[in-house]
Amino acid sequence: MRIMLRKGITLQQGTFTAVIAPEPVILSAFNENPDLGRFLFLFLCGNYSRILSRINRTSSNFEIRRPFTADQLLTALKEASHTVIFIEHDPTLFDGADRLLVPVAAALRDAGHEALVILYSEVMDRSFAALARHADRVIEIVHADEPAYRGQYQSSRPHRQDNVPNPSQKTLEVF
Amino acid sequence: MWILDSSGRNGVDLWYRDGSVKCRHHDYDPPFYLYLPDPPAFHEMIDALGDQYRAEACTFRTLFGDLDGFSVYAGRAVAEAIGQQTRGDAQLFNVDIRRDQRFMAEQGLYPCGSEGESRYSPDFRYDLRQVEIRIHDPPSRSTMCTEVELVHDRTELLRGREHTVAADLFSFLEAIDPDVILMSQADLWMPKFRAYALDRGIDIPLSRTGNYREMDSRSYWSYGRVEHKSAALIPDGRVLIDTDQSFVYHEGGLDGVFMAARLSGLSPNLASRLTPGTLISSYEVYEAVKRGIVVPFRKSDVEVARKFTDLQDADRGGMMFQPVAGIYGNVDEIDFTSMYPSIIVNFNLSPETLRHTGQPGFLASALEPLAALRMETKRKKTTNPRYAGIDSLLKWMLVTCFGYTGYRNAKFGRIEVHEAITLLSREILMQTKNIAESMGFYVLHGIVDCLWVRGTAVERLCTEVKRKTGLSVENEHFDWIVFLPLNNGFGAYNRYYGRLSDGSMKVRGIAARRHDTPAYIRTMQQEMLAIMATASNPAVLGMVRDPVYRIYCNAVQNLPCAPPTELAISRRISRTTYARRCIEGAAVQVHRDAGLEIVPGMKISYVVRDARTYRVDPEWTAERFDLSYYRGLLDKAWKEISYAFRWGGRDTCGEWKAQKDLWSSEHSVQQPERVADVCLNEPDEHFP
Question: How far is CA B2 from CA A122, B110, B126, in A?
Fold first, then answer.
């Protein structure tokens, strides 16, 4: 069982992979892979999934569980016996639950011995980074025409580069 | 023993009133409970727990049945370590229950009540010495108070230099020796008092032991918005209530605080500082301990795996019927009393009854007396206003009890219970709609637990609904009601106002009701509504159009001369940094520049000086304001009112649109009569 994310990037059963990618990439990987319907698929997400409603879920093998705490995520991972386990990362699960980052990462790894485990997020954050450290592979996909992802902790305020004139400036800066 | 205060440091201290206020100490060091699915796998850990602390094999009762495990006589840190070492395999119980609350629940005691009295009685009495301290200085910008009003048997006004006022205040408090202190912004002033006292080597005479318990500040999400709770210093042996920040006091007064303490088993000091959600959660914890059920430390039971269609069917929320925007005469609002709690009770919904429907559910049985008490206070408050505070508190606790079934940290919550409640509520609202229509009523609008209908013999409808659904309903009659439109012209669900049969106005979602509306604009809309309230039926509503419009004209005319403080916008900030420039971000920055510590959930008040360039001033320094920005807000508020007169809805006031009848004549039996008919031929010359 394998899922092709992009040409040349394939996810295989028996691995734990952390994926950072734009939502359309991950959606097309699922929706354009009819073979997925043949396998038991577990979708784990928090209270507010960004992609669940856009995944083709007609298959009867597609199951959903929504853990609302890191403890519940741990339980769900330990109980999972699916071929594909997809976790839409929700950083709020780990608010005040840093103690569970290592156990959850270990559970992801354990599950990845048998299943294809994908930990997905559109952007990197602290808890995702901690979990991804235990992954077999970390894949980050960025659109060629888009600027590389700027981390959450980087200022997103517009800032001026020294050698680039401010577009709103109407006069010369230096005389 | 009338318990005034309690604390759980090194045992339990109960402060009770018996002539004077006395303290009784109880040695109490209860265990927590541990369940391991495979104990031999952790035999070394169990041995170590037995050696270092005290661990005994025992059987304890959980919500889902008995478990064989261990009672461990150690604190939370040990429980955390067990959780870490077992990598989440261990199930822990009764770890984080407040010691004083657990002691009282086990002993059948509760605060603010006499022996032999029912905990659920709203008729409790108390004989306590009270003082109210009103400090007129702004706490965020003052180091110490300079103007204080002290209200007890008489009112003392203390004014002068900082240290003089504080010294006088402390002397008065020492002399009065109050049991209850109601203080404005108490939680912001107390740290200043403490710093002042430390500086001078004196004691603040608020605590009866000289000790204070500390509560940390925190920001948290509640119903989609960020709230902030200040840190608090809680005195021993006295009740100190922050009259400005306590939601429970604001809603329920002192009676409400005491009732919250009685129900939750927490001291009134704590009960006054908690949200209704935490109170209902504490109430459930108290009830569980009282019944011998252990309380889970961290919930690890996740929802069952579901197919997408099953999830889609289950996870739908409450039912809404969209209204057609317009003005309607003779409308009745049928409202289910405590619908969600009643569903929980009537349908025996609880996490453990989802699969074993036959057994009585903990949640349902715990909420039953609370729902019954709410019915009682709701009935009694109509004749005795003393019950209004308790009723309001119960209303909020019962409202949040539903939300807590889906809350991730709720001790006795489970998402499937949450979904079952909303599923039943949808069915009940549909059933009610069908009953109403079968009896010849026209359904105008519906939101989750209430319907707006037109027709005759509404009492008969209420009786029928009650008989068929098993839930209590009440109705309010509107002489007329306005359902406002959305931008696309369809009716808004939550923006309406109308005149009730007692002559008062019921207003929802418009400027007069919103918290961030500047006082100047709110006053304008309230004056308009007051005039509109004189119109007893839709036909007369058209006649008050002129005076209402004049209020608007005067407001526009006087706007340039309005005091800037009247235009202050108060908002609860959701974040402290903003990626893009915006007015709220600018307001946060100016408050920060003024030296205030900004935290999410905090309320700030500002005046917009120039909206185009995002310039704002804190309310207390504002001298100018952006006229066009506030004119925009004023016009928006006017638009909400002018809709009732079918104004064109544009800023230019020259237009008068004839009302169009949206229903065709074939609906003549059930179609609602619309105000339109009244206003059709009003002359334009009434309006400039």
Answer: 57, 9, 8
C-beta atoms of A157 and B298 within 8 A: no
B414, closest residue in chain A (CA to CA): A68
Q: What is the complex's ipTM, to 2 decimals?
A: 0.76
Please check whether residue B300 touches A, CB under 8 A.
Answer: yes
Indicate yes or no: CB of A65 within 8 angstroms of CB of B298. no
Distance (Å, rounded) from C-alpha A131 to C-alpha A103?
10
Find chain A residues with C-beta within 8 A of B298's C-beta. 69, 71
- Nearest partner of B492 among B447, B525, B428, judged by Cα: B447
Tens digit of each residue's pLDDT (9 = 90 or more) over B526-577 = 999 999 999 998 888 888 988 999 999 999 999 999 999 999 999 988 888 8
DSSP secondary structure, B312-351, as one string: HHH-----EEPPPSEEEEEEEEEEETTHHHHHHHHTT--G
Residues of A with CB under 8 A from a CB of B: 42, 47, 52, 57, 60, 62-69, 71-76, 78-79, 99-100, 103, 106, 156-157
What is the signed CA dihedral for B76, B80, B82, B86, rounded to 10 degrees?
160
CA-closest candidate to residue A47, choices B420, B575, B406 = B406
Look up the CATH superfamily of A2-140: P-loop containing nucleotide triphosphate hydrolases (3.40.50.300)
Which amino acid does the sequence have at B640?
E
Q: What does pTM read for this prediction?
A: 0.83
| Contact between residue B429 and residue B467 where contact means Cβ atoms under 8 Å apart | no
Q: Which domains does chain B have, with CATH numbers?
A: 31-93 (3.30.70), 115-290 (3.30.420), 320-399+406-503 (3.90.1600.10)
Sign of CA dihedral B91, B92, B94, B96: negative
- pLDDT tens-place string over residues A39-65: 899 999 988 888 888 887 667 788 999
Q: From CA A26, how far away is CA A20, in angstroms rounded?
A: 9
Positions of E strands within A80-136:
84-88, 116-121
**In chain A, domain spans:** 2-140
CA dihedral B527, B528, B531, B534 (to 10 degrees): -120
Is residue B112 within a helix (H) or strand (E), and if so which, with residue range? none
- DSSP-derived pairing of the beta strands B212-215 and B232-235: antiparallel
The Cβ of residue B119 has, within 10 Å, a number of other Cβ atoms equal to 19
Identity at A97, one-letter amino acid code:
A
CB distance B102 to B289 below 8 Å: yes
